[in-house]
Design a protein that fits this description.
The structure holds two protein chains of two kinds.
Chain A: H1 2-37, H2 42-85, E1 90-92, H3 99-103, E2 113-124, E3 127-144, E4 147-164, E5 172-176, E6 188-190, H4 195-200, E7 202-205, H5 208-214, H6 217-229, E8 233-239, E9 242-248, H7 264-283
Antiparallel strand pairs in A: 1-2, 2-3, 3-4, 4-9, 5-7, 5-8, 6-7, 8-9
Helix pairs in contact in A: 1-2, 2-7
Chain B: H1 6-70, H2 74-83, H3 96-119, H4 121-125, H5 127-162, H6 166-172, H7 184-188
Classes of the chains: A alpha+beta, B mainly alpha.
Chain lengths: ~290, ~200
């Protein structure tokens, strides 16, 4: 009941912010329309300036209000929702995974701009995990007649996870849907028995036996199914005590969307996005204690 | 001063150069296929050594398990001990077929221990036994990995050996198809123990 009241309140606040965006849009439309109709008239120009200022004011007000709503929503509704789904979970919407932690996966190219948020950590079935949204951008420079233009291209937008891994093995193993490892290690490309798996993924291992030890037929099937359930480019790195997983799906998870009503279907999407963590732990049998060192 | 034109070489010369170039290409190709086959053969041998290591590990773990079982079910443990052909591990002269047999015997022992455990609940509560059980399961995983790696390498080398024109090189260096490590069928059979 209390949750419903809160969601209704968020919807009302959201509508107010969205209204400001609509007004700013109309003002922009008016300003452009007036300017194009009679660009030389001074009176019209005054109205154009007034409409443009109005556009900016409403745009800024809407943006500030909307980011406040998003922040509040994450810190109240999502935090509570996550707590009920995974007890003792820690959700820090403004914090992200550190670059050191992210690059430790050894499958991500070092970015010129690194942005991360929605940091989630906790334990499921005694398996520690970390999850975070990640955006990586590369700097590009274009030389034109008028000078130099610098722009950034996003090459990774999605999620990164780190799980405790339950098998003891040597070297690094990477299972990548695309690309190559960003590592100084000496890898060899491994072909497994499954033709379908070899077609879908590229397997790089420091030692061939590690690939066969970790990627058992069951696990290969599980990875295949996980990839189907999580569209995007999947990358996995088995290194030491950890398994790093990244999904480059061009999605910013746990975000409210403008002009989309906050209802049960949206809440369900957030739930599913969180439970992806559990899906990985269970499907890859990371909770199997049989192979644990201790 | 030393400018040589095609007309200076003549038709015969050109034919000789072409034949020479073709021969050189064939020799380079022959060497590269031969090297590839030798490298793969080495990988097959390495993988077979991996199977030996994993089998030995599994044998050691199961032996330890049998020793622990003796404290609870002496007769059953001794019966299981007799299932294994080599009491002191894998002999150096053992063939792949012998290893397959040994692999199956070890699986029989592992299944037999599971039968004994069901009969003696006290054994289930023994922490040393439980730790060994976990270690044995791990050795099984290592053994399966070694077996799969070996078979993957065998597939790679056999594919080259039977594919024309690489098969010519394989024949010339007297390399024949390698056998697979097949043990699955027997492993899946239910084993009954008459203790």
């Amino acid at each position: 009941m209390e949750k419903d009241v809160r969601i209704t309140k968020f919807n009302q606040e959201k509508k107010k912010a969205e209204f400001k965006f609509i007004v700013s849009g109309i003002l922009a439309f008016i300003a452009i329309g007036l300017f194009l109709s009679s660009p030389e008239s001074e009176i019209v120009l005054i109205f154009v300036v007034i409409a443009a200022i109005g556009f900016l004011v409403f745009l800024i007000m809407g943006s500030v209000e909307y980011s406040k709503i998003k922040k509040n929503f994450k810190n109240t509704v999502l935090k509570d929702l996550f707590q009920t789904l995974i007890p003792d979970i820690q959700y820090l919407p403004e914090k992200g995974i550190s670059p050191t932690e992210a690059y430790a996966s050894e499958f991500l190219k070092t970015a010129d701009r690194f942005h991360s948020e929605d940091y989630i950590s906790g334990t499921i079935d005694d398996v520690n995990f970390v999850s975070s949204d990640l955006k990586l951008e590369e700097r590009h420079v274009q030389h034109t007649k008028n000078g130099t233009r610098v722009y950034y291209v996003t090459y990774f937008l999605g999620r990164i996870f780190r799980f405790d891994f339950n098998k003891v093995f040597t070297g690094n193993l990477q299972v990548l849907e695309a690309g190559s490892p960003y590592s100084r290690r000496k890898f060899s490309k491994v072909k497994l028995e499954s033709i379908d798996f070899n077609k879908k993924f590229r397997i790089f291992a420091e030692e061939d036996i590690t690939a066969f030890y970790i990627l058992t037929p069951d696990i290969m099937e599980a990875i295949f199914n996980l990839e189907k359930r999580n569209p995007g480019r999947l990358s996995m790195s088995f290194l030491g005590d950890h398994l790093y997983v990244a999904i480059n799906n061009n999605r910013d998870t746990f975000e409210l969307h403008l002009f989309r009503k906050l209802d049960e279907s949206v809440i369900e999407e957030f739930k599913q996005d969180l439970l992806v963590i559990k899906d990985f732990i269970v499907s890859l049998k990371l909770n199997n204690k049989l192979f644990k060192k201790d | 001063m030393f400018n040589i034109t095609l007309s200076d070489i003549g038709t015969g010369g050109i034919i000789l150069i072409v034949i020479g170039a073709l021969l050189l290409i064939i020799v380079i190709w022959y060497i590269s296929v031969m090297n590839r086959l030798r490298q793969l053969e080495l990988k097959v041998h390495e993988a077979e050594s991996g199977i030996d290591v994993a089998l030995t590990k599994r044998f050691d773990m199961l032996s330890k398990m049998l020793q622990t079982t003796k404290g609870y079910a002496k007769h059953e443990a001794e019966t299981l001990e007799n299932v294994v052909k080599w009491r002191s591990g894998i002999p150096k002269e053992a063939t792949l077929k012998d290893k397959e047999e040994f692999f199956n015997q070890l699986n029989q022992v592992a299944q037999g221990i599971n039968v004994v455990v069901e009969k003696y609940p006290d054994l289930k509560a023994n922490t040393v036994f439980l730790e060994l059980q976990s270690a044995v399961a791990n050795t099984e995983e290592h053994l399966q990995a070694a077996r799969r790696l070996y078979n993957a390498n065998v597939t790679s080398i056999n594919t080259i050996i039977v594919t024309f024109p690489q098969s010519i090189v394989a024949n010339m260096i007297k390399m024949t198809k390698k056998p697979y490590f097949e043990a699955e069928e027997q492993k899946r059979q239910d084993v009954t123990f008459d203790f």
